[in-house]
Amino acid sequence: MAEAKQFDVVVIGSGLGGLTAGALLAKQGYGVCLIERNFSLGGAASVYKVGSLTVEASLHQTSDPRDPRDVKHRILDELGILNEIEWIPTGPLYTVSGGPLDEPFTLPVGFAAAKDALSARFPAKAKAIHSFLDRIDQIQDSLWNLSAAREERSIARLAKGLAEIAPVAADWRASLSDVLAREFGEEEGLKAALAANLFYYGDDPKRMWFVFYALAQGGYIGSGGAYIKGGSRQLSLKLAKTITKAGGVVKLGRNASAIELDGEGRPVAVRHVARKSGEDEERVTARAVLANCGPNVAADLLPEAARAAMGEAFGTRALSTSLFCAHYGLSAKPQTIGLADYSSIVLPAEMRRFDDYGAGASLLADAPKGPLPAYGIANFSAIDSGLWEETPILLSVLGLDRMDNWRGLSRDDARARREQWLDALQARLERDYPGFSGLVQERTLLNAQSMAGYLNTPDGAVYGFASLPPTESILSGFPRTPRTPVPGLYLSSAFGGEHGFNGAMLSGAEAAKLAGAELAGG
């Protein structure tokens, strides 16, 4: 084993949560060593090649961090990289069609514009629409003020946040379905118009925590969506550069093999090996470890007693949904066949009630037999993405999937089913946009198994733990935290907070804050 190298912090994994945590701690002067099992950075925040097709791993759009209320704004500004990245507005949040909607509906950016568009489409519910969106806006504002008060130690902002927090407290334990039913009754088309992009957060309105929906969807409505020019890897590279510029180290192609603990159960070192050979073991000493991975992965690196404690703390928590993503490489821009929107969502005709949104997640357990699940289309050529200036041009189609859909299949059978679903989705796109099939040069479908392998998450959970309503009162705070039962070990991923780019970065920032306080005190 190579001689141990000394650092203050070891980060296991280079997803956005790990990179954010590592960058913040490095910026504060701590010695950071980041270990990544892959040979590229970013995890889901990356761009890669499949044949000749360039694929965006996960980013379709994120709430625009140039808005000071956006949760990423403060983090990126503190790191000095907010304005080093070109954020491309993606236009309206989405255009949704199908399901309980008789005609397509486009949800615009901005609370005022959203109120106007929704009220024009559903005039009988105009008053309820205004009240609902005002509540979403107030939840955004109150939690932003509370966060700013903590950062700035501002009594005035704290008072303002507490004064505005009533809507959060009122619906603290409510599901999205609960609130939509209370506000809009049986107006299923309106519910679909407000939350058609649910698969970006979860799979079931009856289990989705309303407060999380309010924060996530409110961020999109208030700030607008944005794509990073050049792809999400640009953000990952900037964060990694912050680490190395401060004297930290980023090691690629290295698998963490063990987390060593001292007699008090605190991390003292991380061992890692070359991914390809499993050899060339190195040992890095550290006073804190940040796990940018699922708690199950971190637990497997620990001694038996600590592993059992991790299992007790996290083993019974419900996992988020997984996704499928069909990538088509086209010989011309989709605009040539009438697909002009950046973000489109298609709901199945059979879905007459919004509460049935997640029913399609089980469809991929068999070959296509007619109905398709709800799916979204990301048309990257509708904006100046900085990619796909030459063919093949990427068009991505995504929707809900589950690992159970693919268990027990041989590799050949799984490959055949993926091809059948690529055929079915392509046929639907051809029906809606005649000429689509003639543009297809390449195609590939990633399923829940693909997500599990790429993200190294249990059951291919793409969003960490499911965003279920909390069982505790608001006085207990947010129900997810980067803390673990092992002192000095923190989760800097969606498993330590909420999901998506925002959730992963917030979890990384909170993990960095907790680790920094411990390091400063030690």
Automatic annotation (TrEMBL):
Gene3D superfamilies according to UniProt: FAD/NAD(P)-binding domain (3.50.50.60)
Origin: domain of life: Bacteria
Xref: SUPFAM superfamilies: FAD/NAD(P)-binding domain
Residue ranges constituting the Amine oxidase domain according to the UniProt record: 16-513
Source organism of the structure: Methylosinus trichosporium (strain ATCC 35070 / NCIMB 11131 / UNIQEM 75 / OB3b)
Keyword Signal belongs to the record: yes
Residue ranges of the TM segments: none
Leader sequence segment: none
Annotated protein name in UniProt: NAD(P)/FAD-dependent oxidoreductase
One GO molecular-function entry: oxidoreductase activity
Keyword tags: FAD, Flavoprotein, NAD, NADP, Signal
One Pfam family, short name: Amino_oxidase
